[in-house]
Specification:
alpha/beta; 60% helix; globular
Length: 509
């Protein structure tokens, strides 16, 4: 009983942190419109859930399957497929939160810094965006944080159980996304934490090297399970869309580096905000304290960051999300050191100083995070993300309204629905909610030019039929299209509109 009571009091500080995390991540979870990639991943999970032969369906587009597998499991218990898939990211973010606590504590041996790091993560706008979306990046971040934590444990404790745990974590990470291979590439850099003063250091160093190889071997065995699918080679094909292969990169090694690095830093600072950036700077100014630990975090951040700038062909802010998480323990250190300084300077208690400073430094990031949840159109997130997820054709404004409308029509009898698009938001966003309705025939077409598909016109002669377009406001539907506008929904603040039309049969013209 005393053991339980003692350990219960140890976790009390984490209770309000946990509650705050889930309140912020779960509030208005369905308000953000479904993004194109979310529609694709959730639809894959739906198909995999219903047909075991399609468990590797994500490989058809060169994507690793672990996120899809977890989404598939959540869909068994949660009716709304989008919410089910988004909850995978919410819980992934919670494991990131816990991992950051352990990482900060292991590095700096200070529980206050560990708690501060966790609090900063809760209100981190970058985390708020990706912990709420049905995409792989929150899970990538979780495995990355736990991988560096166990990598540090391995070099400090040199134990077999840590080695194989690390191998499983890295293996799961690279089953999620290729970027988790950095957990392997960066593993040798943890040697800077090796205690060169200990006895038998050469033997222990060799043992660490062998155990590190065990970790890598386990992770690669796990990853190579994907070779069971004939579509395994699609991963490298897809990677080449976003990253230049060496054979191409050598032809223009630094041509795109400056532009890429500028864009990456703009996105990073947009999400860190001046407040987190200042805390990170404070921790680096005090570089004489725990220098090796800080250098390791900087290496884990900077090497993938520079590699992406060098080799990135098509880049998005989400690619640097997992890297940015390594900076949060530095921000936690900066906040703690600043509170210590002000406490001594003004003769106030350390606890009061910590509370006041934490409230000050998280207020603006927290306001961005809350606005993203409640009013995403006006959220001050990175411009590229705002454009993709909120203010462009790729944001699924109108999907929910259209599925509600079409479900109501299908309750009265059979209907047909055609969409402009065969992959992505249309028709996957509709399929998530309508594909199981036997009264609905849903089919995508691309391109739709000059006239409606003949199949659509044929259906219109038999049953109520509808067609959905997603195009800029200045695009005029040709007069020869026998359509009646049912409703339209603007894509955020963009010129794109989601339009649902009823197809008018020829006998009614």
């Amino acid at each position: 009983m005393n053991y339980i009571r003692k350990n219960f009091f140890k976790i009390i500080p984490f209770i309000p942190i946990t509650i705050t995390y889930f309140l912020l991540r779960l509030s208005y979870l369905s308000r953000l419109p479904i993004f194109t990639d979310e529609a694709i991943y959730a639809r894959w999970a739906q198909i995999a859930r219903d047909d075991a032969s399609w468990r590797f369906i994500s490989l058809t587009d060169g994507k690793q399957p672990l996120f899809v597998w977890f989404s598939m499991i959540f869909m068994k218990f949660i009716e709304d497929p989008l919410i089910a898939a988004r909850l995978v990211s919410v819980f992934s973010g919670f494991f990131t939160l816990i991992g950051l606590w352990f990482l900060a504590f292991e590095l700096f041996k200070n529980k206050k810094i560990a708690y501060l790091t966790s609090i900063l993560y809760i209100f981190y706008p970058f985390a708020q965006v990706y912990d709420r979306m049905a995409m792989m990046d929150s899970m990538v971040g979780a495995f990355s944080v736990w991988a560096i934590y166990f990598s540090i444990l391995l070099v400090r404790k040199i134990r077999l159980d840590i080695a194989y745990t690390l191998g499983f974590i890295i293996g799961a990470g690279i089953l999620t996304k290729t970027s988790n291979f950095f957990s392997i590439y960066l593993l040798p850099f943890t040697v800077i934490l090796f205690d060169i003063k200990q006895n038998a250091r050469f033997e222990k160093f060799v043992k660490w090297g062998l155990l590190a190889l065990v970790s890598v071997a386990i992770s690669l065995v796990i990853y190579n399970l994907l070779r069971l699918s004939p579509l395994f080679q699609m991963i490298s094909t897809k990677n080449a869309v976003f990253v230049y292969p060496f054979s191409e990169w050598f032809n223009h090694p630094f041509t795109f580096f400056v532009g890429n690095i500028r864009g990456l830093f703009n996105w990073l600072f947009a999400y860190l905000t001046p407040f987190y950036s200042f805390l990170i700077l404070i921790s680096l100014v005090l570089f004489y304290k725990q220098t090796k630990e800080k250098v390791l975090l900087l290496i884990y951040f900077s090497l993938p960051f520079v590699a992406l700038a060098l080799f990135g062909r098509i880049i998005f802010p989400r690619f640097i999300y997992f890297m940015s998480l390594y900076l949060l323990p530095l921000a936690g250190v900066g906040l703690f050191e600043l509170s210590q300084y002000l406490s001594n300077k003004f003769k106030i208690s350390t606890s009061l100083s910590l509370v006041l400073l934490t409230a000050f430094f998280v207020f603006y990031p927290a306001s961005i995070s809350y606005t993203f949840a409640k009013d995403p159109i006006n959220a001050k997130i990175a411009g590229s993300d705002s454009n993709q997820y909120i203010n462009n054709w790729s944001a699924g404004w109108g999907i929910k309204e259209s599925t509600d409308f079409l479900s109501e029509k299908a309750s009265k009898g059979k209907i047909y629905v055609g969409t402009e698009g065969t992959f992505g938001l249309l028709p996957a966003g509709l399929e998530l909610y309508l594909v199981r309705n036997k009264n609905i025939t849903l089919k995508g077409y691309w391109p739709v030019e000059h006239s409606l598909p003949k199949e659509s016109l044929d259906y219109a002669e038999k049953i109520p039929s509808y067609f959905i377009f997603y195009q800029p406001n200045n695009v005029v539907i040709p007069q020869n299209y026998p359509l009646k506008l049912i409703f339209k929904e603007r894509a955020g603040s963009s010129d794109y509109y989601f339009r649902l039309y009823e197809i008018i049969p020829s006998k009614s013209n």
